[in-house]
Structures are given as structure tokens and as C-alpha cells.
Amino acid sequence: MQLSDQAAPGVESSPPPDHQSIRHQVPANVEAGASMLSVSERLYNLDLAPAKIEGRRWTAYSIFTLWANDVHSLGNYGFALGLFALGLGGWQILLALGIGAAFLFVLLTFSGFMGHKTGVPFPVMSRISFGVRGAQIPALIRGGVAVVWFGIQTYLASLVLRVLLIALFPGLQNIDNNSILGLSTLGWLTFAALWVVQTYIVQHGMDMIRKYEAFAGPVILITMLSLAIWTVTKAGGSIAWSTDHQLQGGAMWREIFAGGALWVSVYATFVLNFCDFTRGSKSRKSIIKGNFWGIPINTLFFGVIVVAMAGGQFKIDGTVIGSPADIVKAVPNTFLLVIASLALLLLTVAVNLMANFVAPIYALTNLFPKKLNFARAGLISAVIGFVILPWNLYNNPNVIVYFLGGLGALLGPLFGVIIIDYWLLRHSKIDVPALYTEDPTGCYYYKNGINPRAIAAFIPAAALSLLIAFLPALNSVSSFSWFFGAGIAALVYYVIGDRSAAFEDVSGEPIAVESVH
């Protein structure tokens, strides 16, 4: 990330001793108006500061390519192909994905507007509802989920790279049979290589991530479409529209709506911290346009590819594939196999960067704003993702179910509190400079920096979400856990939220910094 040579406007500060320390420079005091309170060095640095409106770089195309990469992740293909295996046919899969995409378009658009208006990242956005200190709770939950998945996704990408290298250089099979802390020598080399590539990209900041996504998006779309066409051609130009045990009646409709609900749950993380990206968006129109083409349209395109791949392969040999990687392995031409494998690696890195790297970076920066910047927090996040030996976690079902499942169950309640507070109670009137003060008179200081009303709404909704996630007796509604959690938290907070305060709309421009996000 490029470092700014200027402190926030209206800030008196001594020149930093070196270029790198500029990133950590904190304003001693802001005197840009009567509403401005002292800015705390424990709440502000140049990564957490609001982004200036002028110079923002995220266009509709930037947002579209973000979704072009993430929607087509291997995990999403595994989920959608699973619907085919469950007994849903082609049109039922498209309907399920369409229902989920419609919800997501609305949720992500309103979430994106929050980032565009305030220009702040998710940990700072959370201060509005949870308080300047209480915001650590949602930031760390979101970041904790992401950093573990960063390591796991890097490991899964390394499996693709191992297969590719062995196909090109069969002799490498000799170093893929041993085990060092649960991973072969080739496994360590491929994991380390992908870890270095992703860490290098992040060291150059959000703008480098934006450029990478813009490059990867079209490549992924073309690759997946090509794989679908190749499969249908191999199947003789037609596909099987369902398996031999297609669901009917009530069971069919339940799986359709459950599939749509799970598609929303897949993006439970993004609906929380989408502001990390849209804080750099040029306009509301760019968010709407990028989301429209990137979510409903792109999701239906994704659904068509899923149906073509699943139906084509089922017609060929009666099997249901679990991932596009299964089709890639069957490509007879070595050159095409290499190209397709490289595209899958490009995709996995793209998804990992935006879905699992950005959130922990901002969470750590928010935790230690005097010590960390985007690049340093990125390096720490990467190291955590490495030292947890994610391949061992991935191979332990208890970790996935109880740790990641438990944290994931908390995302809906967090969203319910934040979205209701912002839109229905405050009517989007935000005093942005007050998000950076620990002055007890500040409107987001609440009680010792924590909003007890937000905690009171969060706890019962979180408890229910955890019960739904873990109790076998509630398994029938587990697909809808995100909606239960978000809905209950939103309802409780709407009832107990403070309506007596006079909400003010104060721009963050006086303490904003040049957008490098």
C-alpha cells in the first residue's frame, strides 16, 4: 500500500522520523468545528481513518469482479453441486440460487451504502452500534473466522498445485508420500509458495487486491464457461436435468428454500464487512450496478454452469461431481489441464484475498492502531494462518463444526444489530468524527465505550443461533439459522434501542485521508 505524505487536515503533528512511521501517525487534536472532539490515538490511524470522497477508486466493474471471483469459488461449486446430489433438478437449483441472490442483492446493497457514506472499515463501522470499545467484539469474531479460513483455503489451493506439478513432473511424487507435521514435503513447498504470493499481494494494500480481482474476474468466468461447454459437448450436446432420485412436492420446495437460505449464509461474512470494500466506491450507483451484475446476474450464470457441469457429467457416467476440479482432472490434453488448473489457483487466491485476508487485517489494525498498519497486520494474519497448521484443522471435523461453525453462527446477530441501528434507528445519520474519540461525551462512547443495549440484543440471538447450529433436534431449521439470528437481534434491538438521542449527520472529511483502498 502506498503511504500518504500528509496527516489528516487540521491536525497538528510533528514530522515522523521515517516514511514507514507515517502510516501510524495519529492526530493529537482535530479542531475543524464545534462538533469535533479529540481524536484518540487508540482509535485512529491512517488505515482506520475515513477515506476521502475525492479519489476513490472502486468502480462498478471493481465490485462486479469481486463477485465474479467469489461467487465462482470452489466452495460455492461444491455447495451448488451438492443440491444436485440431494435431488434438485436444473430449474430447482436455479430457483434456489435466484432466491438467495435476491436477498443478497438487497442486503449487500444496503451494507455497501454504509461504507460509501462513512468511508470507514468494518471495525470502525461497528463502533456505531457497539461503542468505540465494544466494536472489538464483532471485529474479532469476523476476523477470527476469516484468518482460520485463510489458512484452510490456502491449503486447499495447494492441493490443486500439487496435482498440477505431479502431472507435469511425475518425479515429484517421491516427495509427496512422507509426512512432516501432517503435510508432505511437496505439500509444504506448495503451501509455502501460495502463502508467499498472497502475502506479497497484501503487502501492497487494498488497491493491489482490487487490481488482482479485476484481472482474475474475466479469466475465471471464461474458464468456468469453457469447462461447462466442454462437459456438455462430451455428453453429446445434452445433459441430464436431474438425478434418478429427484425430489418432489413438499420435500422439493423445502430444499429449494433451504438452498436459498444457505446461499445467504455463505455470504454472512460479506454482508457484515462489505464496507471494507465500498468505503472506496465512487458512488452509490457504482455499488448498485456492480452488485446487480455481480450478484443476481452472475449467480444465475453460475447456476447455469453448475447445472451444465452436473447434468453433463451425470449423463456421461452416472456420477455427481463435487467440484470443477473433478472435471479438470478428466481433461485429456495436458496443456489445457495446466491452463484450467492455473485458473482454479488464480480463483482460489482471489477469493482468499478478499474473503479471508481483509477482515483480520482490519480487526488487528483496530486492536493495535498505534503499532500496526495494513501491511504489518496482513503479515501477522498470514503468519497466524500458517502456524495454526490449517491442514490439521481442516481434517478435524470438530474444529470445523464447533469452532468455525460456532463463530459463524454469531455473524447473523451481529448483522441484525448493526443494520437496524444504522438504517431504522439512526436513519443513516452518523457523526463520523465521533467514531474516533474516547471522550465520555461522544455519542458512541455509551457506557465505558460499550453499548449495553447492543450486547443485550446480541446475546439472546447469538444463543439461539448456537442452539440451532449444534442441537440435533433443531437440525430441520439449521439452514435458516442466519435468518433466525439476524431477525431476533434486529427485533430486540429495534425495541430496546435508544430513540431519545438527537442523531446528527457529521461528515468525516475533516479527518479523512486520501483513499488508497
UniProtKB/TrEMBL annotation:
Quote the Gene3D superfamilies the UniProt record gives.
Answer: Hydantoin permease
- Report the InterPro entries cross-referenced here: Pur-cyt_permease (IPR001248), Uracil/uridine/allantoin_perm (IPR045225)
Highest taxon of source = Bacteria
Q: Where is this region: Disordered?
A: 1-22
GO function terms (MF aspect): nucleobase transmembrane transporter activity
Membrane topology qualifier = Multi-pass membrane protein
Q: Which positions, given as ranges, span the membrane?
A: 79-108, 146-168, 180-202, 214-232, 252-272, 292-314, 334-362, 374-394, 400-425, 454-474, 480-496
Broad class of where this protein is predominantly found: membrane
Under the heading Pfam families, the entry gives: Transp_cyt_pur
Localization, per the record, is:
Membrane
**Which UniProt keywords are given for this protein, alphabetically ordered?**
Membrane, Transmembrane, Transmembrane helix
Which cellular component, as a GO term, is one annotated location?
plasma membrane
In the record, the note on similarity to other proteins reads: Belongs to the purine-cytosine permease (2.A.39) family.
PANTHER family, A to Z: NCS1 FAMILY NUCLEOBASE:CATION SYMPORTER-1, NCS1 FAMILY PURINE/PYRIMIDINE TRANSPORTER
From the Swiss-Prot or TrEMBL record, give the protein name: NCS1 family nucleobase:cation symporter-1
Q: Which organism is it from?
A: Antrihabitans cavernicola
